[in-house]
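Collaborator request, handled under Task 6.
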Amino acid sequence: MADTRTVSLPCGDAVTALGQGTWGMGEDPGRRAAEVSALRAGLDLGMTLIDTAEMYGDGAAEEVVAEAVAGRRDEVFLVSKVLPAHADAGGVAEACRGSLRRLRTDRIDLYLLHWRGAVPLEETVEAFESLVREGAIRSWGVSNLDVDDLADLPAGARPQTDQVLYNLSRRGPEYSLLPRCRELSIPVMAYSPVEQGRLLGHPALRDVAAAHGATSAQIALAWVLRHEDVIAIPKASVRAHVEENRAALDVELTAEDLATLDRAFPPPESKRPLEML
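Structure tokens returned to the collaborator:
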């Protein structure tokens, strides 16, 4: 098994290139034990970045994360997000306190604006910076912001990541957003890197997977992770799925593999609106 690869954030923190998502966790009490076990298995395998949000299960996902990281908080790089409706000066502070309480921790490592809303970005960034000074969060970033949105951030603002929808069937960010983030030295965090499973039956993926003795999910993840500055955060609710995801780090796609996938999932030839799920 390959060593866990890392990506460096602008602040200097090195985080695991393959993390763990939690969208959909905490919504069914009957699955909670399996979800906690899956997250712990991911930690054991070195997938120490865990992404969550106040929106997921109306806070229930954060509570699952709290249980999973209990006694292991210092191993984990915790990412959570504030809803745009809470992104004003007072709302950010209140939302952060709620997340800290549900996560049962004294700090969030990376706190993101979930998507852009009506609150001026300058006000949100100022609130984030205030939380950094207080020690409630260690750093901040954004999610679902396109190139024009990044340009609207206040002068001197330095987000640690832009978390966006990016996978083989959602290649729009490659046209201008990924290049712009590289210019700014901002790693991209890819959510839904296997399109919530909808990619997995595609014949091209199955063919490449068969050549590697891998699964379609592993190929889809390896494709996202081919970039040195992209972090993938797939969700896995059972241990076997976590182990499958982790093994994607051992897959090295060839030029022929990439050409096959390009034919099946053509790269963008022009600017596309940033997609969201």
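The cover message to the collaborator said: "Residues 89-103 form the longest helix (15 residues). The mean pLDDT is 96. Please let us know whether this matches your experimental observations."
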